[in-house]
Amino acid sequence: MHYAAILAGGSGVRMGNPDKPKQFFFVGEKPILVHTVEKFCVSGSFEKVLVLCPATWVQQTRDLLQRFCPEFVSQIAVIQGGETRNGTILNSLKYLEQNGLLDDDAIVVTHDAVRPFVNLRIIEDNIAAALKTGACDTVVPATDTIVESLDGDAISAIPDRHFLYQGQTPQSFNGRKLKEVLESLSDEEKAVLTDACKAFVLRGLPVQLVRGDASNIKITYPQDLRVAETMLGE
After folding, report:
1. What are the structural domains, with CATH classification, of the chain?
2. Binding-site positions for CTP
3. What pLDDT, in 10s, does the model give residues 154-192?
């Protein structure tokens, strides 16, 4: 079985409104979160779409989804996220386990709530890669030169960008393997490993690359909203 975990724990600080998480800002006539959830519901690939958000926003999230996409609410479960990204992912896995859904073949596709332009090809490629390898990351080739500075003052290195990629989401995994890896992290590792794929790499486990798309943008700043409005209009 395949399950989606939409990570909706972001804040609105960089949007200029710390009291309103960015996933609840509108693009067109719907909140960003609704656009994202709909992509996974209409794909036809998932038994359940989990939406993980701060505890204080759980009921409001349920109300929004009931209002904007009532035809999908039976497929959606809104649950509380964790204090960190990996903690939030673990909450999704615990929900699946508690409901008898986390078997050996379960695939969990994790995705940022504020990437509403993910397409069906990316979702299907993630599922295929996770089934084959156990873990995958969606990426696009780096187009700009990447400069490394260890002290924030002077250049330490300029890696060859032909070997560099920019990470997007989804990131997808065999659910049981993902739970095993995340639960194996020490407190020190949990403090620095905020990315599930990085945790797999640390354990020496393979992570397959899936080709992303330049349109799969993450809406973080006010100018991103304007770009998203234009993309939606097109």
Report:
1. 2-231 (3.90.550.10)
2. 7-10, 82-88
3. 999 999 888 999 999 999 999 999 999 999 999 899 888
